[in-house]
Amino acid sequence: TSVLVLNGPNLGRLGSREPDVYGALDHAGLTLAITEWAAALGLSAEVRQSDDEAELVHWLHEAVDAQRDVVLNPAAFTHYSYALRDAAAQVTTSGLRLIEVHLTNPATRERFRHNSVIGGVATGTVAGFGTDSYRLALSALAQA
Ligand code: DQA
């Protein structure tokens, strides 16, 4: 099974972006880790990152058309992008699974991070385990 792993805005800056909050691993390192975790779980993962809301929306449409499950870290779009929410809803209403992931636990952070407009249309959410959040999401997808 081929899973699409989509990372939203500023996640391409991992490693140099607030490393005390988001960790020292850069996006290339995260991509490698995700690829290896997926393989160990009998999945294959394709990792993409974009700062562009429209591109993320198109990638979610692509997942629907290609019938692929999705792991999505919507980053800041989590908190306000109804366009991303509507695209994510098309994934789950078409019978595919979409796991929302976060490196940090947004519930413990600033108030504006407490609301996710994605959570209500996701299959489930994994947050707060650093890069392990992705491994846990993949493992949930591998279970079913
Ligand atoms: C994040 C949490 C968001 O609030 C933030 O805007 C991010 C990363 C996380 O992975 O912890 O960019 O999605």
TrEMBL record:
Lyase listed as a keyword: yes
Active-site residues, as the UniProt record annotates them: 22 (proton acceptor), 102 (proton donor)
PROSITE patterns: DEHYDROQUINASE_II (PS01029)
Gene3D superfamilies named among the record's database cross-references: Dehydroquinase, class II
Record's keyword terms, sorted: Amino-acid biosynthesis, Aromatic amino acid biosynthesis, Lyase
This enzyme's EC code(s): 4.2.1.10
HAMAP family noted in UniProt: AroQ (MF_00169)
NCBIfam families (UniProt xref): PRK05395.1-2, PRK05395.1-4
Name of the protein in its database record: 3-dehydroquinate dehydratase
Species assigned in the record: Occultella aeris
Underlying gene: aroQ
